[in-house]
């Protein structure tokens, strides 16, 4: 069946499971509110007619007291209903937010290249917030307002059938018009939302790179682009507002007309002696009351238009299932989960088969890969690493070295050929389990604004301090730890304690030691470091690679002294593969040439 916005909205219903009590309470409160609203004009009628016919003061006071009680009761019910609806909205949308964040955390790097964090924040929070009303009380409120409309018409019928006959078709026409107007603004709101998300993505990216932009004199250009984007947002917002304003204006006009109609009909009936003054007052009150549900329905339908757009954008995001699902580890730029929340290194999916313990072998067999069809990145790449063997991959920039690492980490699947780890081919459902046995270290180390303990254990509170201290020791960070003011509780990251690139890289190594992986993948881990710092890191790296199967991508061939074998890539093809010591000693080999010139290829 087609995936329509209505079906998607209905799909949100599953987030309301477990909220039966709140929904039942809301369902009880809604008709009560409607009833109390309908009582007030009737009290007014009795009071006016009673006063004009000389009813005793006690009777008039009783009617007035009932009027006040109804008004107060209505306020109390409205506050209670709003509170219930808000609570329901928070609970259900938070569930949806958590689901979306978990989905995003499982996406590969390419996903984050397509969606900058600013855009994702707008979707995960902005779009979900726009759904809040729909998920909590939209249906109930629409039902309540519809009930109020019916109630008003019934009350008018009770007062005078002529009045009811005038109002019923008028109200019906207004509602039909509303129905026709729903959805008109959706394309315009979609365009506006897309430009807002684009702007947020742009702002996030430029603010993150503010230092580079200023240093390179690009601030002025950034401001010009910002003005352009703000102009686009303004234009689209204006267009959306123009269409959106159509129906509130229509409804306002129609409800004003309904009051005039009530006035004219009541005065006419009163003049003919068919209506008492009190009834005329009551009719006018009902006509004014009728504006309320019509305007409320308008507002709710507008909210619904926004929700249709948001649910479409969220469905688009959830449909993105490129690459393999990974464990919800921290993607670049992602915020850490709240302290005390679920551990970031959550358990792999139920259908995942665990990899066996101990060292694992790695095998590429006739692997072909491309990111974009027609632009081969790897062509017929084959190699085998026995358990505990370490491979150094060198080659010119763009020769496909990082791609080998990404394939091994399950970020992409080969187009042809097979990749096996521990004798098992990497299949999407097993990727989370595989990543439990692999440590990937790149030049980008994300240090979270959190304690050193949380930074190492990725917020997993079940990891004991002794294991963390041991990992820090293995990474050679014990001296550094002693200098920290609060030890493992020292807060690192933005706005807190600054770290050098070398210290960050050592933290990445300590994270790897803590996980005790069978396979280590390193993608130019020292690219940001000067040769001196690189030397300081060398012993920790050597310790990490010892007795583990490893693939190390390096630009500087001299830094590959810990590996057993060398693979030289050129244009995505293997042009040399062999024992490091043999290749280094062979003056005819490419690797020997690289060592001599000190270049990558
Ligand atoms: N996500 C991507 N989408 C499209 N093309 C990509 C993507 N990532 C890499 N490429 C392209 O694939 C080719 C190989 O990239 P890869 O990063 O594997 O090379 P590399 O040898 O590691 O380069 P470097 O030494 O500069 O890091 C390059 O031409 C690159 O432009």
Explain what this protein looks like in three dimensions:
It is found in: Cell membrane. Residues 32-306 form the ABC transmembrane type-1 domain. This is ABC transporter ATP-binding protein. Keywords: ATP-binding, Membrane, Nucleotide-binding, Transmembrane, Transmembrane helix. This protein has 601 residues and is α/β, with parallel strands linked by helices. The protein folds into 2 domains: 5-184 and 238-319, ABC transporter transmembrane region fold, CATH 1.20.1560.10; 362-447 and 499-597, P-loop containing nucleotide triphosphate hydrolases (Rossmann fold, 3-Layer(aba) Sandwich), CATH 3.40.50.300. Helix content is 60%, strand content 10%. The protein contains 21 helices and 10 strands. The chain has helices spanning 5-11, 20-52, 57-105, 109-114, 117-136, 138-159, 161-181, 186-208, 210-215, 219-244, 246-271, 277-319, 401-408, 431-435, 452-457, 465-474, 478-483, 501-515, 531-545, 580-585, 590-597; strands at 362-370, 376-385, 390-395, 416-421, 424-425, 438-442, 519-523, 549-553, 565-570, 573-579. The protein has a 6-stranded mixed sheet, sandwiched between helices. Strands 2-1-4-5 form a 4-stranded antiparallel sheet, with helices on one face. The longest helix has 49 residues, at 57-105. The protein is elongated, with a radius of gyration of 34 Å. Residues 323-348 have low confidence and may be disordered. It binds adenosine-5'-triphosphate. Adenosine-5'-triphosphate binds at residues 110, 371-372, 377, 395, 397-403.
């Amino acid at each position: 069946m087609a995936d329509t916005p209505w079906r998607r909205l209905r799909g949100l219903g599953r987030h309301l499971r477990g909220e039966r009590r709140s929904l039942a309470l809301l369902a009880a409160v809604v008709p009560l509110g409607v009833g109390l609203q309908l009582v007030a004009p009737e009290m007014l009628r009795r009071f006016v007619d009673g006063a004009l016919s000389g009813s005793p003061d006690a009777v008039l006071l009783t009617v007035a007291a009932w009027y006040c009680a109804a008004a107060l009761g209505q306020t109390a019910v409205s506050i209670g209903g709003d509170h219930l609806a808000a609570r329901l909205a928070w609970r259900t949308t938070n569930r949806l937010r958590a689901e979306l964040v978990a989905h995003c955390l499982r996406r590969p790097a390419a996903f984050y290249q397509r969606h900058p964090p600013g855009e994702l924040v707008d979707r995960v929070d902005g779009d979900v917030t726009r759904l809040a009303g729909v998920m909590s009380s939209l249906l109930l409120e629409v039902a309540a307002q519809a009930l109020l409309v019916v109630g008003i018409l019934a009350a008018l019928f009770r007062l005078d059938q002529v009045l009811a006959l005038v109002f019923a078709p008028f109200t019906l026409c207004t509602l039909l018009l509303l129905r026709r107007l729903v959805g008109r603004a959706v394309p315009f709101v979609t365009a506006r939302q897309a430009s807002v998300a684009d702007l947020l993505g742009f702002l996030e990216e430029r603010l993150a790179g503010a230092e580079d932009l200023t240093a390179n004199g690009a601030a002025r250009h950034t401001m010009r682009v910002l003005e352009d984007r703000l102009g686009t947002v303004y234009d689209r917002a204006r267009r959306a507002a123009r269409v959106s304003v159509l129906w509130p204006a229509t409804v306002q006009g129609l409800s004003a007309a309904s009051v005039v109609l009530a006035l004219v009909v009541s005065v006419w009936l009163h003049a003919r002696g068919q209506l008492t003054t009190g009834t005329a007052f009551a009719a006018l009150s009902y006509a004014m009351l009728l504006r309320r549900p019509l305007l409320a329905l308008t507002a709710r339908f507008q909210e619904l238009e926004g929700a249709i757009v948001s649910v479409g954008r969220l469905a688009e995001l959830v449909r993105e299932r490129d690459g393999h699902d990974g464990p919800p580890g921290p993607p670049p730029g992602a915020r850490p989960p709240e302290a005390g929340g679920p551990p970031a290194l959550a358990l792999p999916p139920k259908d995942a088969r665990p990899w066996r313990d101990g060292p694992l072998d790695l095998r590429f067999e006739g692997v072909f890969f491309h990111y974009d069809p027609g632009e081969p990145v790897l062509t017929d790449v084959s190699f085998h690493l026995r358990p505990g063997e370490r491979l150094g991959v060198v080659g010119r920039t763009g020769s496909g070295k990082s791609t080998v690492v990404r394939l091994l980490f399950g970020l992409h699947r080969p187009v042809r050929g097979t990749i096996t780890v521990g004798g098992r081919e990497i299949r999407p459902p097993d990727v989370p389990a595989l990543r439990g046995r692999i440590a990937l270290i790149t030049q980008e180390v994300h240090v979270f604004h959190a304690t050193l303990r949380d930074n190492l254990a990725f917020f997993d509170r079940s990891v004991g301090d002794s294991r963390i201290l041991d990992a820090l020791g293995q990474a050679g960070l014990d001296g550094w730890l002693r200098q920290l003011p609060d030890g493992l509780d020292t807060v690192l990251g933005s706005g807190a304690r600054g770290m050098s690139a070398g210290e960050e890289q050592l933290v990445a190594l300590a994270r790897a030691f803590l996980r005790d992986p069978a396979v280590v993948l390193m993608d130019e881990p020292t690219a940001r470091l000067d040769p001196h710092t690189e030397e300081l890191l060398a012993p920790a790296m050597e310790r990490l690679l010892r007795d583990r199967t490893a693939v190390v991508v390096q630009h500087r061939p001299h830094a590959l002294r810990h590996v057993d074998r060398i693979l030289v890539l050129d244009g995505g093809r293997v042009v040399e593969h062999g024992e490091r010591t043999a290749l280094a000693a062979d003056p005819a080999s490419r690797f020997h040439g690289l060592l001599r010139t000190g270049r990558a290829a």
